[in-house]
Design goal:
The chain is an alpha+beta fold. It has one domain. About 40% of the residues lie in helices and about 15% in strands. A two-stranded parallel ribbon has the order 1-2. The longest helix is centred in the middle third of the chain and has 23 residues. The two termini are about 25 Å apart.
Length: about 80
């Protein structure tokens, strides 16, 4: 593994397990859509919004020039992707 990306805001303070190979660990904080209070439409909207945020972040990650940037610059770019809305 090269990267570990956590997404749940409640996981931000948790200690991640030790992964073989020392992958870069980055947190992309997202609110847990399962915690939304409201009717079924509110909950469905929360899941849709969360899915769309993850989808945008993954597309941005896949567009990174992984073979042309150094490790530290790459980690910085992956963290910046986490800030995308």
């Amino acid at each position: 593994m090269d990267f570990i990306i956590t997404v749940c805001d409640s996981a931000a303070s948790e200690t991640c397990p030790i992964w073989p190979g020392h992958p870069a660990t980055v947190h992309w904080g997202l609110s847990d859509p399962a915690a939304v209070v409201g009717d079924d439409n509110d909950k469905m909207e929360a899941f849709r919004e969360t899915f769309e945020k993850i989808e945008r972040k993954v597309h941005a990650f896949l567009a990174l020039p992984l073979d042309r940037v150094g490790d530290m610059e790459l980690v910085t770019k992956i963290r910046e992707i986490g800030e995308l809305e």
